[in-house]
Write a structure and sequence with these properties.
The chain is an alpha+beta fold and 529 residues long. The chain contains 13 helices and 22 strands. It binds flavin-adenine dinucleotide.
Length: 529
């Protein structure tokens, strides 16, 4: 049996293998050369003490204990031929791709359709949004291979770890090119420069074992027969296709994993009489600080030790019995334009694996509940979605027709006055001073105002005119839920239809969407066997 040790390492010691060996030797009484292997089981950064330390739990294998690595999950995959079932997966985001991997493992043929482009080609459309303000409705920060997760911060922690096989999802990411550290770190992330490669490797696995992936396929209809879905219809929206050719895709089951921005899919479901429901969500702003300021507060040192990661924060408070909370914090990251259609401003955050930009941003959002939107009731199940869309349009209409975003310095936002100028920001399309206090719905603004003022008391240095508040962070989660039976995971009224991932209302992030994809695929397996 290996010896299990808890070690505290200074930042500069964290990646020094010979020092780790020496420390492990001291604690076990072995000589360093007697240690056959050290396996890191857990690693976290403890910044509470005066000097930040990394706390590691390790398994030390001496001369008599044998380390045997876990066999690769992909080693158990065999090619599929469709005889056990043929399943259409709409959406190549984390939910769709992990559903495809799980189906392959069960011997079922997955056929993935996505409206967007492969991860590499998609980059050109991201550049067009950033530089020219042109939003392609099929290829943007939310749509395309890997979904909203590809050009993101790639944070891989989730509050819904018990809702699926977290370790399996992480191991599959590692087997497709992510660093193995994500298996042990308390707050793992991958970064936008690495994620596209991982996503493309997952596609290669799907193709290698007999699955299919088709880009530029916008699903526009469902084939329904006597309360059962037997396929989908897609329109070819790829740039090579000049006509609007449509194609039918027959299926034994359909997994719908289209993400929280596929408004056309919600409209389609409603038009075809398939029940959907309005769902509470959250809306607010992005707030950006200089990273050095956050480092100074969290580590009590600025510049930070070069071996420490860019510092982050997580803040939450109550205003009028409603939570105001920071969300999707991106240390050393960028604010990005995440609109999915022309005529709207939507912001989100991303970072590279090194998290080395001079800015730290996070969403700061307020929960939106049905009682907040009584005036929107006339829109029925689309009440929340219409409200969300109206706020995004308002932000756009205040600008010059580009993806420039309205913004205020933090104290000006709280005081309700226009900023004379704005601090430097990571947001490439640019910011302009605008009365966000008048542009945001009053109940949202008031809660944000009070919440941000409280954050200033909770985190020294947070409330500063060096911080900028940007409108708007509106796509935190889906404003619509597609119901499903909690046991079979199938839509209660449509046999063979499996709502999945964030767009259906069952996930809120990369890992939870991936795990939901795995669970749903297991549901499909039980249905088809
Ligand atoms: C910029 C940014 C940064 C983020 N950072 C993080 C982070 O650091 N950590 C984290 O956990 N989460 C992050 N998120 C959220 C995370 O990406 C999502 O929660 C996750 O991707 C949801 O997965 P999904 O598979 O359910 O849906 P999505 O990833 O949204 O994928 C849906 C897919 O469906 C396709 N699609 C939509 N409609 C159709 C149609 N009609 N026909 C065919 N295909 C269609 C889309 O093209 C898309 O590829 C971020 C999101 C953004 C936008």
């Amino acid at each position: 049996m290996p010896a299990i040790l808890d070690l505290a390492l200074r930042p500069e010691e964290r990646h020094n293998d010979s020092l780790l060996r020496q420390k492990a030797a001291q604690q076990t009484g072995l000589r360093p050369d007697q240690i056959a292997h050290i396996e890191i089981l857990k690693s976290s950064l403890d910044a509470r003490s005066r000097e930040p330390v990394f706390r590691l739990r390790v398994a030390v294998y001496g001369p008599t204990s044998v380390f045997s690595p876990e066999p690769a999950l992909l080693g158990g995959f065999v090619p599929v031929d469709g005889r056990k079932g043929r399943v259409i997966i709409v959406g190549a985001g984390p939910a769709g791709y992990f559903a495809a991997l799980e189906l392959l493992e069960q011997g079922i043929l997955p056929i993935v359709l996505d409206r967007g482009k492969d991860a590499q080609t998609r980059r050109r459309d991201l550049r067009a949004i950033q530089q020219f303000g042109e939003v392609n409705p099929h290829s943007n920060y939310c749509f395309g291979e890997g979904g909203a997760g590809t050009y993101s911060d790639g944070k891989l922690y989730t509050r819904s770890a018990k809702r699926g096989d977290l370790r399996k999802a992480l191991r599959l990411l590692v087997e497709h090119g992510a660093k193995s550290d994500i298996l042990t770190e308390a707050h793992p992330h991958i970064g936008s420069n690495k994620l596209p490669g991982v996503v493309q490797n997952i596609r290669e696995t799907i193709l290698h074992y007999g699955g299919e992936v088709h880009f530029g396929q916008l699903v526009t209809d469902f084939i329904l027969n006597d309360g059962r879905i037997t396929g989908v219809v897609s329109q070819d929206v790829s740039p090579e296709n000049t006509g609007a050719s449509t194609r039918e895709w027959p299926a034994d089951a359909v997994i719908l994993a289209t993400g929280h921005s596929a408004r056309d899919i919600y409209r389609l479901l409603h038009a075809r009489g398939i029940r959907i429901e309005a769902k509470p969500f959250a809306l607010g702003v992005r707030v950006e600080h200089p990273q050095s300021l956050v480092d100074g507060v969290q580590y009590r040192q600025s510049p930070r030790n070069e071996h420490l990661p860019a510092a982050s924060y997580s803040l939450v408070c109550q205003v009028q019995e409603r939570g105001v909370f920071s969300f999707c914090m991106c240390p050393g990251g960028l604010i990005v334009p995440a609109a999915t259609a022309p005529g709207e401003i939507v912001t989100n955050g991303m970072s590279m694996s090194r998290r080395d930009s001079p800015f730290a941003n996070s969403g700061v959002v307020v929960a939106v509940e049905p009682e907040d939107l009584m005036n929107w009731k006339k829109h029925g199940v689309f009440a929340h979605l219409e409200f969300q869309a109206a706020v995004e349009r308002r932000m756009f209409e205040a600008g010059d027709g580009s993806q420039k975003a309205p913004a205020l310095r933090l104290p000006d936002f709280v005081s309700g006055r226009l900023s004379a100028d704005l601090p430097a920001s990571s947001y490439i399309p640019g910011l302009f001073p605008a009365p966000l206090h008048e542009m945001l719905p009053p109940f949202i603004y008031k809660r944000l105002r009070d919440g941000l003022a409280q954050f200033g008391k909770m985190m020294r240095g947070y409330y500063t005119s060096e911080a900028v508040v940007v409108g708007t962070e509106s796509r935190t989660s889906s404003p619509v839920r597609i119901p499903r039976n909690p046991d079979t995971l199938m839509h209660p009224e449509v046999v063979g239809l499996y709502p999945c991932g964030e767009g259906a209302g069952y996930a809120g992030g990369i890992l939870s969407a991936a795990m939901d994809g795995q669970r749903v695929a297991q549901g499909v397996y039980s249905f088809l066997k």
